[in-house]
Every structure is written in structure tokens, then in C-alpha cells.
Specification:
The chain is mainly α. The protein contains one helix and no strands. The protein is rod-shaped.
């Protein structure tokens, strides 16, 4: 009977430790500030009224 009790207590302690570790990891991840989402490359906005009728420097 003592081996069964020892096995049960070992499982209970392991479950408690795993739960504590999971909560600790989540708390550590929540404590880290989020990184800003800044793009490395930006492109100019297209004109609002559509393409222009004048050809560009590469046309023709």
C-alpha cells in the first residue's frame, strides 16, 4: 500500500509543479512588453484619382 501511496503523491506533486510552471511561463510572457510592429520598408500611397494621363519617365 505504501508504494501505491508514494506513486499517487508523486503524480500529485508532478501535476502541481507542471501547473505552477505553466502559470509562471504565462506570467513571464505577459510581463514582457510587446514589440512595436514597424515595417522595414514603406511604399508611397497610390494617387486617389487613378492613374495619370501623362507618361512617366520610363514610358515610350
Amino acid at each position: 500500500m505504501s508504494r501505491l501511496l508514494a506513486a499517487f503523491l508523486t503524480c500529485a506533486v508532478a501535476a502541481v509543479l507542471a501547473t505552477g510552471a505553466a502559470f509562471g511561463i504565462v506570467a513571464a510572457l505577459d510581463a514582457v512588453p510587446e514589440q512595436q510592429n514597424v515595417p522595414l520598408v514603406t511604399f508611397p500611397d497610390p494617387p486617389a484619382h487613378g492613374p495619370s494621363s501623362t507618361p512617366g519617365p520610363g514610358a515610350g
